[in-house]
Amino acid sequence: MMVTCLLTPKGQVMRKRLTELIREMVLMEIPIDLAKREFEAIFLQELISRNGGNFSATAKQIGIHRNTLSRKVGQYPGSLGYHKMTSPDASADPVV
Fold first, then answer.
1. Same domain for 25 and 14?
2. Which pLDDT tens digit goes with each residue over 70-82?
3. Same-domain check for residues 51 and 80
């Protein structure tokens, strides 16, 4: 996994974009709890998507247990494509 340091030119651009978004959220009087919740939901959705729906790989990438990731994802029903965040194994037909 490549980490972009916020001190590099690319990182500074990202930080500027994030700062602009936060300013908009503050102007809209969005509570910090809601902002953090939405950030985490979108962040996790993106990671799970990049890992092809593989919760184990995603959890390993961010340094948490797979069950913790599943619990976190379960906190965001209805959030931005939650239906896309289910594990591919969860929809598999049971073995007969």
1. yes
2. 999 998 876 544 4
3. yes
